[in-house]
Specification:
DNA replication; 2 domains; Methane Monooxygenase Hydroxylase, Chain G, domain 1; Sld5_GINS_A; 153 residues; 76% helix; GINS_Sld5; 6 helices; nucleus; elongated
Length: 153
């Protein structure tokens, strides 16, 4: 049987872990924003933050069902919104870098290995679409030797 002290300690350690993951996500976001190249995707961190978001959503639903004080619910909702914003911003920043440097990233296996599987697929499809567009609109009209996206004479 768990005492009240054990329950409080468990809740405190869970809150500390959540804070730590949020701080790690903030650091990853700042590092990604400051780095000129795309950094390695931290899949375990993103999945943990995603799980924490789901837990917060479930907690909010439970609070709404049990009639908890509106102030407490709004504080939890604010924390959830902040965490969602941070995660979305981090992922959006990575996608923007992939779009901007898709040709460069798609040429080097080292850079491709830094991406998540979904990001890798996104980078490859963006590069293919861009190559097809350039081929149809510009490169087909250029003389031989200048008709390649990657090769220039």
């Amino acid at each position: 049987m768990m005492s009240s002290w054990d329950e409080d300690e468990t809740a405190a350690s869970a809150a500390e872990a959540a804070t730590t993951d949020i701080e790690l996500l903030k650091r990853a976001w700042r590092n990604e924003e400051a780095a000129p190249e795309i950094l390695r995707f931290d899949s375990p961190l993103v999945s943990r933050v995603h799980e924490q978001i789901q837990l917060l959503e479930e907690t909010l639903d439970d609070f709404a069902d049990s009639g908890v004080n509106d102030l407490v619910v709004s504080l939890y909702q604010m924390d959830l919104d902040r965490t969602l914003f941070l995660l979305r911003s981090y992922l959006r920043l990575r996608l923007q870098k992939i779009e901007k440097y898709m040709m460069h990233i798609s040429r080097f296996d080292d850079l491709l290995s830094r991406l998540s599987p979904q990001e890798c697929q996104f980078a490859k499809s963006c590069a293919e679409i861009m190559e097809k567009h350039l081929e149809q609109s510009v490169l087909s009209k250029l003389p031989y030797g200048y008709d390649s996206v990657t090769r220039q004479s």
